Amino acid sequence: MPQMIFVNLPVADLRRSVEFYEAIGFSRDPQFSNDQAASMVLSDTICVMLLTHEFWATFTDRRRVDPAKEAQVLLCISREHRAAVDAITDAAVSAGGTADPCPAQDHGFMYGRSFADPDGHIWEPMWMSAEAAENGPAEVSNAG
């Protein structure tokens, strides 16, 4: 079985968050979803667990930060090409998110943007040239 990652995010409005993540390409797994949590699947190895604030509090006694005001993580996901970076960012904005809370990056061999979901969690979709990924950016003359 391949190693997987399950990102747990506290959300203020579970229904709104599910709708947002579905609008940007995630699918809800009903087997692991209820009125307190929703399992949102991005790929065979990446899932996001959206948890109500109350349910989140049952997992840790640490203070939950307000992601609209503080950043604890930046969630970077790869995309197939540059246009896919823009497409998911545009979809996020159309679904109620915020575009580019972090500066866009264009290094030729690598391109990235960012968006915040309705709660303020920051995602950074990025594309990198396959050649750069294999050989490093110095080997790429005109990727893109």
TrEMBL record:
Residues 3-128 form the VOC domain. InterPro entries: Glyas_Bleomycin-R_OHBP_Dase, Glyas_Fos-R_dOase_dom, VOC_core. Pfam families: Glyoxalase. PROSITE patterns: VOC. PANTHER family: BLR2408 PROTEIN, BLR2520 PROTEIN. This is VOC domain-containing protein. It comes from Salipiger pallidus.
